[in-house]
Design goal:
The chain is α+β, with helices and mostly antiparallel strands. It contains 6 helices and 13 strands. It has an 8-stranded mixed sheet. Helix 1 packs across helix 3. The protein starts with 5 loop residues before the first strand and ends with a helix. It holds the Pfam family 2OG-FeII_Oxy.
Amino acid sequence: MAAAAEEITLPVVDLASPEAGKGLMAAFRDLGVASVVNHEVDDPAGLLRAVRNLFLDISSSSQGYIPPFAESGSSLVEAKEGFAFGDIMDLPPDLTERPALERAYADFYRTSRAIVDALETDVPALRGCCDTNATALARLFHYLPSNRDLGSSPHTDWGLLTLVLSDDAADRDAALEVWHDSKWRRVRVPDPTALVVNAGDYLALVSPLRSPRHRVVVRRRHRYSLVFFYYPDYNATVPEPRPDLDLSLFDCQVVADDDLGRTCAADYQGADLTFGDYVARKWREVARPALLAR
């Protein structure tokens, strides 16, 4: 089992402050990650209880459910199960947690909009990029105790912003880590009411900001999180990457021994695909065949 990573404390940005944009820009230039307070997400502790309850309540045949080990951003096995929903993927109508999750989706959406509004002064490309955001996606994760340490492979996020609410504990047995100054650093959120916000690959493509490489480690405890992926509009174009950028958006994440014949999204680069079509191909990349999930 690997030693625990060094800790790094995230900067706290108050979204109600007129200086929120400056604070976000500074954090995203340095780490690519910040924590935000005075956001729109109501009752974070209650929402995490709903996430835990969902994994007790959900059926393996439910739309949006991803069974343990059936998804990965690399050839490595990841100790997690998941559940996805959003504007293009409805919640099951009989789900006990449906009202809480529907409220949470709306809250995360409003928070994402507030962050974009705060950044627009310094990132003009964001003006009008996300006005009909039907590609936003909420994902719930249950990370399983594992002697492999790995809950989620090192990766960057493909979209504009990623908002994270999790039950990370001080005992370091389950944690989000970011790659910074050539080391993995365990993320510490100084305010328990704060949300973690990652800059995504699209934001890095249209600005001087960083899309941070990060991972989730799990050891002796379960970890639960709600992750909100905020994308540019479906019809947005996919900008050409600068040579200095190392982004998962352009990685081929199909495993080498995948016999399903899936094509990498990056093979379509320059083919005038919309961002929505491109990301749909990316999701197919990281879905794992059952034989590889075992």
